[in-house]
Specification:
Layout (H helix, E strand, L loop, with lengths): L1 H21 L6 H26 L4 E4 L14 E4 L1 H20 L9 H20 L3 H19 L6 H32 L4 H10 L4 H17 L7 H9 L2 H31 L3 H23 L5 H21 L3 H15 L1
Length: about 350
């Protein structure tokens, strides 16, 4: 029963976004506000239920009941573990709080588009946390990114938001190319996109240069979206000009999803193949985390703009999260996950 709720948690905000967009000219302001709060709160409840169910083991949902045949995945799956369900629940809780805060944040003319984009962003974040398919991970992150670009430049009549949205888009698009090339290489190597099937294929084969390059590209693309040094500068520029409710989502959960994606790809796909490189890989992650934490912290002292200062503070925290992930231990990942929850709230 619980597995049936998994795709619904993604579908509900998408359907609500489409409905609001189609009926935008007929819906009064309060109805759009109330509907958005109700939808995000319902997603929070659903992801909370999924989180408790995932504590007994990962939840698996095959779309169209297209299950693997002979160990080969012919369909698309959602594979939900505790970490994925937890960060999806955090995203829904924060989105609910943001919608409550946004009740009078925008004027009448700006209202509907903002809520449509925020609901699409919520659906993309939940889908990214749940997916068990590598290409769909890319699709959900791109859907998340497109909605974020539009939200950053929402006040397009002003130069600041327009420039911030453009800088955000250009920088993150480079990360998207890294991610897409990494997916292409790992597909060429394994002939699979399902996490479990890729892991099994890599475990049975030799770890060659192509596997290392594909992992590097995937992680680089996700780290660019997580604002890890040296890809950190876009976050401060974006945070300065984006609306305050949007900034709460960006710093509270969106950039952390990049680290979650990198951690999940390592443990779900690459751990068997890269176990011999574990110490070196962990050292790289930890050093990147330390550098990111120090750069973010030091840059806070140079800021005169409050939102820019908060952006560098979030970058510093991302570095500390990465140190926890870089231990490549389950205890370290659990500590980082707990820290992400606390920081987001």
């Amino acid at each position: 029963m619980t597995t049936a709720v998994v795709p619904v948690a993604v579908a509900v905000p998408l359907v609500a976004a489409v409905a609001i967009a189609l009926a935008a000219t007929f819906l009064p302001r309060r109805l759009v506000d109330g509907t958005s709060i109700l939808v995000s709160a319902s997603v929070a409840v659903m992801t909370g239920i999924i989180l408790f169910a995932a504590m007994d083991g990962p939840l698996l949902h095959w779309f169209g009941d297209w299950k693997p045949i002979g160990g080969i995945a012919v369909g698309i799956s959602f594979t939900v573990d505790v970490m994925g369900a937890g960060i999806a629940c955090l995203a829904a809780v924060l989105m609910t709080a943001v919608f409550v805060y946004s009740w009078r944040f925008y004027d009448e003319g700006a209202l509907h588009g903002y809520h449509v984009l925020m609901l699409v962003l919520l659906a993309a974040m939940v889908g990214f946390s749940f997916t068990g398919d590598l290409f769909n991970l890319f699709v959900f992150f791109e859907l998340m990114s497109v909605a974020s670009y539009a939200l950053t430049g929402y006040r397009v009549e002003h130069a600041g938001p327009l420039a911030g949205g453009l800088a955000f888009a250009v920088t993150n698009t480079i990360g998207s190319f890294f991610l897409l090339f990494g997916i292409a290489l790992i597909y060429a190597r394994t002939g699979a996109l399902n996490f479990a099937q890729i892991a099994r294929t890599l475990e049975d084969g030799s770890t060659d240069g192509l596997v290392l390059v594909s992992f590097t590209l995937l992680v680089a693309g996700l780290f660019a979206k997580a604002a890890v040094v040296p890809w950190h500068f876009w976050h401060a520029d974006t945070h300065t000009v984006a609306p305050s409710p949007v900034c709460a989502i960006f710093s509270g959960v969106k950039i952390q999803l990049g680290l979650f994606g990198a951690a999940r790809l390592y443990w779900a796909m690459f751990e068997p193949a890269l176990s011999s490189n574990g110490p070196s890989l962990g050292s790289v992650f930890i050093w990147l985390g330390v550098i990111t934490a120090v750069v973010g912290g030091v840059m806070c002292f140079a800021q005169q703009h409050m939102k820019r200062l908060l952006a560098f503070s979030s970058i510093s925290h991302v570095g500390l999260f990465l140190v926890g992930v870089g231990t490549l231990e389950h205890v370290g990942l659990a500590g980082a996950g707990t820290y992400v929850m606390g920081h987001g709230l």
